[in-house]
């Protein structure tokens, strides 16, 4: 079996990319994946808001994407699209419509229709059938493994975040 093509959308926020990588790493522990990272930046907040309102009725995804994002869409079609972060929500849904891929989002929906995503991971219930509530946000595999400390020194950690 060949590796499953997976597109990971990134808005440039390290925490968002980390959540997406965590989802892909969980999948990669079961099947081979070929990951393509797609960087995007919102070009127009107006077009993004309009796209959110009209998402259920948009049929020409390719014409919407350049108005909303600075994005370079690779050739071919993925089997899965994964993203995290509000700025990736619309691109995730539009690319899934365009390619026929299954799409997964990690986070809250911020007004987007839940039906636009096959699976939504979050740490709180969103009250929709396709929501899977996790105790913690997804993290990449290397962060999920326990650290092996070989010396007798004691270690402490200071966690800073928001």
In short:
The protein has 162 residues and is of the alpha/beta class. The chain is 30% helix and 23% strand.
What does this structure look like?
With 162 residues, the protein is α/β, with parallel strands linked by helices. The protein has one domain: Rossmann fold, CATH 3.40.50. The chain has helices spanning 14-28, 45-54, 61-68, 89-99, 141-144; strands at 4-10, 33-42, 69-71, 80-84, 102-106, 119-122, 131-133. Helix 3 runs antiparallel to helix 4. The termini are far apart.
- What is the ordering of alpha helices and beta strands? EHEHHEEHEEEH
Please identify the structural class as seen in this structure: alpha/beta
List segments where confidence is low: pLDDT < 50 over at least 5 consecutive residues.
none
CATH level 3 topology = Rossmann fold
Radius of gyration using CA atoms only: 17 Å
| 3D shape | globular
Q: What's the level 1 CATH class?
A: Alpha Beta
Number of domains: 1
The appropriate CATH architecture is 3-Layer(aba) Sandwich
Biggest beta sheet attributes: 7 strands, mixed
Cross-sheet strand order for the largest sheet: 3-2-1-4-5-6-7
Mean pLDDT across every amino acid position: 91
Hey, roughly how much beta strand do the residues contain?
15-25%
Helical percentage: 25-40%
The overall strand count is 7
Question: In angstroms, what separates the terminal alpha carbons?
Answer: 41 Å
The total of helices stands at 5
